[in-house]
Amino acid sequence: MSMKKKAVTGNTDPVDATITEEIEELSGKLAKQSEEDKLMSSVLENDKKTVDQGNLIKDAINKGLGSFTPDLMFEQLVNNYSVAKKIFGPTIIRQLTSYDSSYCEKNIRIPEFQKELKSNIASNIDSLKENKLLGKGGEITDTGIKLASMVLYTQELDKLVAKGITGDKIHKKTFMYGDKQDVKDYKKGDRYRDLAIKKSIKLALRRGTSLDKSNLKTFERQSKGQIYLVYALDASGSMKGDKLDTSKKAGVALAFKAIEEKDKVGLLVFGADIKEEVKPTLDFNLLLDKITRITASKETDIAKTIKQSIQLFPNKDVTKHLILITDAVPTVGKEPEKETLEAVSQVRSHDITVSLIGIGLDNEGKKLAEKITELGEGKLYLTKTLKDVDQIVLEDYYSVR
Fold first, then answer.
1. How far apart are CA 68 and CA 281, in angstroms?
2. What are the C-alpha distances in Å from 69 to residues 89, 95, 126, 135?
3. How far is the first Cα of the chain from the last one, in angstroms, to the nearest whole number?
4. Are residues 153 and 257 in the same domain?
5. What pTM, to 2 d.p., does this model score?
6. Range of the domain at 205
7. Which pLDDT tens digit goes with each residue over 24-40?
8. Residue 166: pLDDT band by 50, 70, 90 thresholds?
């Protein structure tokens, strides 16, 4: 194929000239949008069906449900609704039956309603399979995990934006580049927020001059260098459901903010044993995936978790901090409390500080938590509600910067 052009000079009259050049013809198809990109686009565009399915998968993981079997679920709802409601929760019931949980409970004994319920459950599970969120046997797929992680991430980020926590740090006693130290003469490139206003004014008054550049003083800041964090999440049976969901979101918030500051974040998931561990990293997607997959089961072994954290931190002179989040005292070992405190002493000998966030701890748990944080030279945060757990986790992070 050729194309003719007319060359144009500086005046308005074109010069007659014909230039012939070859134009390469390209053939082929546009690259297909990846499944992951499609899911993310749907989540960001707030496509209701996609977001609802993501919430369904997310809730199922938090409740320890690894697969969906239509007939089995239908039988559980019909045979003992109160027990089924505890197992599945309102979100899963609503998404799979297409009815609100309270409405289902009122009408579960009506044969016609049961027939519709069974049909809806089968249809909605088939839809999840068609979207590759569930496998042929009803098991949650990697695509399902990815969608759940996207929903988890966007929900937590939206919450942080709404609370105004995505900008500067919320802890009023900390500063972006370390604590305020001595003052020095202002020079080009110093940040205006570091201006020592009072000292600058005093200097100008002493000299009997106006406040100009020659009188400006700025605070020097002592950088604390890079920080290595390990987020240790209790995934024992008592954390199942909302506690686990909230703690996961707090972990996402911590990873997002710390990595944004170029600090590294690791992960320890514990119950009776260590379930998952990630060395401190700047890989946010890796942490998001691992956090999303956490399920709750069995007892609590805090001592083993604290000891294991030593292996995750680098053996060099950096700030190392462990954040424990739990709702109970340790229950594994011959003398779990004694073993836990011995573990804290061990990590302190490796220059690791330990903070603890206790969710609804009883008096016995509070006393142990106080000993852990006193010995670990960290901070103790006690909360009965789940509303501000993410903000508490971020506050603790800012306290060590």
1. 34
2. 16, 14, 10, 11
3. 64
4. no
5. 0.75
6. 179-222
7. 444 444 444 567 777 77
8. low
